[in-house]
Amino acid sequence: MSEPQRNIEALLSERRSFPPPQAFRDRAVVRDPAIYETAGADHEAFWAEQAGHLRWSRIWDSVMERDAPWVTWFKGGHLNATVNCLDRHVEAGGGDKVAYLWEGEPGDARTITYGELLEDVCRLANALRSLGVRKGDRVNIYLGMIPELPIAMLACARIGAPHSVVFGGFSAEALRDRINDAEAKVLITADGAWRRGQVVPLKANADDAVRECPSIEHVITVRRCGNEHPFTAGRDHWYHELVAEQPPTCEPEDMEAEDLLYLLYTSGTTGKPKGIVHTTGGYLTQVAATHRMIFDIHDEDVFWCAADCGWVTGHSYIVYGPLANHTTGVMYEGAPDWPDKDRWWSIIEKHRVSILYTAPTAIRAFMRWGTEYPGKHDLSSLRLLGTVGEPINPEAWVWYWTVIGGERCPVVDTWWQTETGAILISPLPGITTLKPGSATIPFPGIAADVVDETGASVPLGGGGYLVLTHPWPAIARTIWGDADRYVETYFRRFGPDVYVAGDGARRDEDGYFWLLGRIDDVMNVAGHRLSTFEIESALVDDAKVAEAAVVSRPDDLKGEAIVAFVTLKTGFEGDGEMLAELREHVTKVIGPIAKPDNIIFTPDLPKTRSGKIMRRLLRDVARGNSLGDVTTLANAEIVELIHDMVETVPTDE
Ligand code: PRX
User: Fold this and answer.
1) Is residue 153 one of the residues assigned to a domain?
2) What is the pTM of this model?
3) What distance in angstroms lies between residue 589's CA and the mean position of ligand 1's atoms?
4) Ligand 1 centre from 389 Cα, in Å?
């Protein structure tokens, strides 16, 4: 049976469906299913109505203009994202409401109101201006999950300087490449970040990176862990010293709807990460609308999106969406098993969290750890659960619903991407009947389809490519510095009107979408996107490696695990030491998330006549063999298998 077929079989073994509980439905933000028809009949009117929830200093001239694949939303409109996230709430008397309930990993905590957040943002925005940052200049941010991370993002948005956040788990080299691609002027980092009681040396990494970043003029460092690191006079500044001199008000930059809000790098099918470009008006409109309707936001809610701001989920559903909706959010700095495996549940109990949004990988880890950890805590404040980042297996869905949600909380499985900016396929929890494992149906005002190789719509019941057939406000406008790649990646296969997501999907008889994973060379490891080429490049960057091919295999916990086939240069041996060296090397070049789970040393890689590595074949080898949990050594059997296969498949793929 093929992989997609196996997935479908597994999905179909759980046939229960879950209509919204009556109590939930009665109070839901969206109760009338007519919203789908209304929005479907006139997408633009629907999105214009959503944009009307924001504060604009000038109303747009046109809702949507299209020169496919290029699109603008709310052209001519002016607004500032931070005015929408902060000032307007404070001016309306909501300054004392808590914006963030922050929990540090070591046990310290901070509560930040909207009024305080606005002042903190203004001080840093002034500091950035004092360092010469102007509208359009890029600012890189490399921080752990501390309040200064959203503050830094918002300070950039205040003055119209696009931010580019790099996940704190990325290496110095990965940071360097992203800074250089964005040509950032300023880097905001911290001395360190806490992770499982250890200090991740962010500033040391930043120093290594910046050494090869000619565009960086200033580095601002937050004091978090108190660890030692060198200071470069003239370039380096302490965050607390800079902001102490600044007034707590700052004139917001009046931004056009289509002005850049941020860049965020994500993996594509080549070794070079793509700088995804998001603009201001359409993005803010859609993250606010989806956040309010999908997470059913009421004034008293405590919303916890347990992602990292280094990923798009954090941008849209920790920072911009929740703040635009004047929501109280939880932010947690550290690992879920620190000091013990019940850390999340203790946070939920402490802050009476009502909505939890996380990834299937985390849910599967909690399942593995056992029910005793959530069992120790009062989780009765929860009323809604969400998942994102990868397909959720029905077993994990049902565990989440039962053990965490006490069978009373709808589970919204939300499908979207860095490029889509906001959720596109998801239930509306007061309306949609849920089916475990399905992200259900497109959000109002979104048009999705499943098509075959020729681009023809596949009838219900069938599978194919997931595509979006109508523009939406938060779509990435381009790839930074590489418009051709944007067109090539998303709009080549079926023409400029059809966005190709890169995911396989199937629709059932009710029109529900079942996501089947990536259909390109992008892997989804623990909810993180990584390209096979990126890891291959990191491997061949090691002087002892002649060639490398990377594929994935299914993994119970992480969704997909990374398997590397490596051919060493003559004279080097694929032993335990070499294994450790290569894993360390990949960590150094990309970060720990990209470390291969298995490395198979082989004297050869199977290739087509034209010299292309036969990845599909290697995938079969990786999937058909029981590889050890940790990296295994050269395996004579596999090597032989590869040779056999090469001999039996002499033609081009
Ligand atoms: O394959 C899909 C998977 O994650 C990819 C997007 O990854 P990224 O840009 O890192 O954004 C992740 C967070 C939005 C998609 O192409 N994916 C995301 N959500 C789901 C999903 N797969 C199945 N079900 C989901 N709910």
Assistant:
1) yes
2) 0.92
3) 24
4) 4
